């Protein structure tokens, strides 16, 4: 078993680094994300082609639809419990919903990308 200091990995795991900071799974350069939830075509550090392994299609709906229902239920429950003014509730929704959706998309897309890269033998 290797120590985390030997492999240069301190603190967070590969998935967390990829999702939050946009670190390449191979070279750890900050080049994974080109948009808030969109991969760059390739790594600027090592040239790894992210576009070849990017998760696309309807599979991400299994994350977005339940998350959307949870956000709607949470907003409804907040409205029932606290009864904030409409402008405050809508303002909060406008800020919270995109942040939660983008965070979830980044996490799931990074997880799928790393799984596909490992299955292909590109990264350990």
UniProtKB/TrEMBL annotation:
Transmembrane segments: 59-75, 87-108
Highest taxon of the lineage: Bacteria
Full protein name: DUF983 domain-containing protein
Keywords, comma-separated and alphabetical: Membrane, Transmembrane, Transmembrane helix
Protein source organism: Novosphingobium fuchskuhlense
Pfam families reported in the protein's UniProt record: DUF983
